[in-house]
Amino acid sequence: MRTRLLPAAVCGVAVAGVYAGQPVLGPMGRDLHVPVDALGWFVAAGQLGYLAGLVLLVPLGDLLDRRRLIAAHLALVAAGTALTAAAPVAWAAFAGLAVAGLFAVVVQTTVAYTASISPPAERGRNLGIVTSGVVIGILGARFVAGVLSDLWGWRSIYLVLAVLAAVLAVLALKVLPADVRPAATARYGHVLRSFGGLFVQPVFLSRGLIAFFLFASFGTLWSGMALPLAGAPWHLSRTQIGLFGLAGLAGALGAARSGRWGDAGHARRVTGIALVLLLASWAAIGQLPRSLTLLVLGVILLDFAVQAVHVSNQHALTSAYPDRTSTAIGAYMVFYSLGSAFGAAATTALFDATGWTGPTVLGAALALCALIPWAFSARRPQDAARRSPDCGPKVPQECVTSAP
Question: Taking the model in full, what pTM does it have?
Answer without folding.
Answer: 0.75
